[in-house]
Amino acid sequence: MAMTGSKHLVDPAWLEARLDDSSIRVIDCTLFMTPQPVGPSIVESGRSDWQAGHIPGSVYLHMVEDLSAPRDGLPYNLPPPEHITDLLASIGVNQDTRVVLYGAGFFNAITRAWWVLKASGVADVRILNGGWPRWTAENRPVSTGKTVFGRGNFQARRQAGRIAARIDVEAAIQDPDVVLINSLTPEQFHGTGGAHYGRPGRIPGSVNLPSRDLMESEPLLYKPLGTLEQMFKQSAVFEHEKVICYCGGGIAASNTAFVLDMLGHESVALYDQSLLEWSADRDLPMEVG
Predict the structure, then answer these.
(1) What is the pLDDT of residues 13-52, one digit of tens each?
(2) Strand partners, 277
(3) 265, exposed or middle or buried, with CB in 10 Å at 0-12, 13-18, 19+?
(4) Residues 6+ apart with CB under 8 A from 242
(5) In CATH, what number does 161-278 get?
(6) Were both Cys, which of 14, 54, 171, 189 would link to 208 (CB 3.0–4.6 Å)?
(7) Considering only the top CATH level, what class is 9-159?
(8) Which residues pair with 125 in a beta bridge?
(9) DSSP 8-state assignment for residue 102
(10) Which 3 state secondary structure label does DSSP give 32?
């Protein structure tokens, strides 16, 4: 199934043909993350990579420094609308701007940016399928210059349906109309290995669909839509009215939310603080095995 020019994914040829289109804003989300045995990963900025070469007319946004609001020991979190309003307006984003995200390194930083922007009311956010590696492999134009934009008129508005809090997850455990998707590896899901976030395991009743399995062996490239759809059907995800995706800190799960949105599920939320919050509260249940 072709995804070129879709509402979610674009390819390099589509984007190169529109680099002079003022209604499109291209954002580089390059980031590098090193998992730790327990707790949040170590984050390394990709800003210097962007400075060394980027898609012409693009700007760089950092997943934590620009697109997070750390609080109470939680390193990410959706920023308040006024922050997103000022940030996007400062790079010339208007209410009708089409935003295209790309990057290298840790792929889920790109889908996390997608979720932050969609949850803040940006109507049209797309991802460059294959990212920076594909762009350069196809010898597309590269710039080292910095573009200055006039201030845009974007006004952020929270989209509550895309956001799940702990209270929503607690209710979902007992609600047959809601399915919880754990986007971590099978070892993390079962609590038998890999990084954990205070207590190993999963939220009771969850199904496991690892974020990494949504991608081809080539970094940053999605599997065909038909393959992706079949993966979610095998887990009976579309039989539930609502989906809540979670992971360690709300990053990997953003990829799951992106793909479900692309496949047309009408009610997909992300548990923003995920297991960094849930596993820290010993009164909240965890399953292993």
Answers:
(1) 999 999 999 999 999 999 998 878 887 778 899 999 999 9
(2) none
(3) middle
(4) 172, 177, 178, 179, 267, 268, 269
(5) 3.40.250.10
(6) 189
(7) alpha beta
(8) 99
(9) E
(10) strand
